[in-house]
Amino acid sequence: MTLGVSRDDAEQSFLTEYVVKGIFPTDPFATIDAEGVGRLVEMGVKLGRSTRADLKCGICGEHGGDPESIQFCQKAGLDYVSCSPYRVPIARLAAAQAAIRSANQ
Questions:
Q1: Neighbours of 63 (CB within 10 A)
Q2: Is 30 helix (H, G, I), strand (E, B) or coil?
Q3: Dihedral of the CA atoms 36, 37, 43, 45 (nearest 10)?
Q4: pLDDT at 1 over 80
Q5: CB neighbours (10 Å) of residue 95?
Q6: What stretch of H or E contains 80?
Q7: φ, ψ at 58 (rounded to 5°)
Q8: What SS3 class is residue 53?
Q9: 41, 67, 103 from 97: Cα distances, Å
Q10: CA atoms within 13 A on the CB side of 105
Q11: Which helix (H) or strand (E) holds 62?
């Protein structure tokens, strides 16, 4: 838990207002905050693989179907994303685009 916020409580009370007012740039339950949470993810991948090189790392949930978050996951070296079935086509396209961008860099 990074924000210390319950998604259920936040969505019903203040989350929309925080996004509208710019307190959160996006819904943190839909798009990964690459600067904050992302650094923790990158640290976890790096430290985990320093102990076990073949460690598989990934994410699941709303972030796994968000194109911006998938781009971050590619850069962070995650092996997979998992999302709800209706998001799979977008996730596959976003993952392919991220892989192409990474290969071209």
A1: 22
A2: coil
A3: -150
A4: no
A5: 18
A6: strand 80-82
A7: -165, 180
A8: coil
A9: 21, 9, 10
A10: 8
A11: none
Burial string for 22-39 (b: 16+ CB within 10 Å, else e) reads: eebeebbbebbbbeebbe
What value does the mean pLDDT take over residues 76-91?
A: 94
If you ran DSSP here, which 8-state letter would residue 91 be given?
H
Global confidence as pTM = 0.86
Q: Could you tell me the two tokens for 66?
A: 């968000």
| Polymer length in residues for the chain | 105
- Residue 15 contacts by C-beta under 8 Å, 6 or more apart in sequence? 5, 24, 27, 29
Please name which of 96, 63, 62, 57 lies closest in space to residue 78, comparing C-alpha atoms.
57
- Smallest CA-to-CA distance from 5 within 27, 20, 31 is with 27
The pLDDT tens digits of the residues spanning 34-77 come to 999 999 999 999 999 999 999 999 999 889 999 999 999 999 99
Structure tokens at 68: 């911006």
